[in-house]
Structure prediction request, 248 residues.
Amino acid sequence: MELDAGICKDLDLSTGSVAGMTEYAHPITVARFIMEETNMVEMHGDRALKLMELYREVRRENLVTPPKLQRWAKMLAELGAGGGYLEKHHQKELRVLMEHPEYRRTPKIGTVGAVAVDSRGGTSAASATGGYWLKMPGRIGDTPAYGAGFYADRNGAATATGVGEYAVRLLISRSVAGRMKTGTAQHSVMAAFREFEGRFGKDNLGIIAVDRRGGVGVYHNTEGMGHAFKTGRDRKTTVRISVRQGGT
Ligand code: GLY
Prediction:
């Protein structure tokens, strides 16, 4: 069980990220610590946590819950039966898991991302994850990778979730931000998706974005992606649990 996270602000191009963190449920707090309290930008998660412990109180805990353990056991029982995430996106890692049972680690998964713009157009982005079920120990995905899992500049901010190996190859969050120089957040997300799907097909990615004028962009080509946004104009929070392919 290894957690990754990354965070950045466009104002001073500050960024921090951690990867492979165990025993602490808040990798984004540690990434923010790296961003704000050090001159580094990336750290191994457990080393970063040790560093943060010098200055902050840290409650280490076992993050494996009984429901997660049950699901993990079921996935192990079905390993190699066909049709799963590993069969689709990680065939080579699947082979390692089949040949080396000691690599079948306990899970902690799910990605959460956030983007924001302030009243002066300053943007920021953050993302945290446990990766995917049965990921290889030591594997690092897009979430702590600046420009891939998260990115913010003067045009806007974006974060991604999905198959990290694909998101890294196209620096997908940077790609969305670059398009927001001229396009709205939604337009830019869709344009980035067109390029992404041309390379990697569907059922593999979700993106949220905000442009410097406060426009929101959301799209996913997966079965579901919960998302919520709040704008300054109406101060209402809109929450969607989207369970079809699409976005706002
Ligand atoms: N997008 C999360 C990961 O691939 O780790």
User: Anything to note?
Assistant: The chain has two domains: 66-103, 108-247.
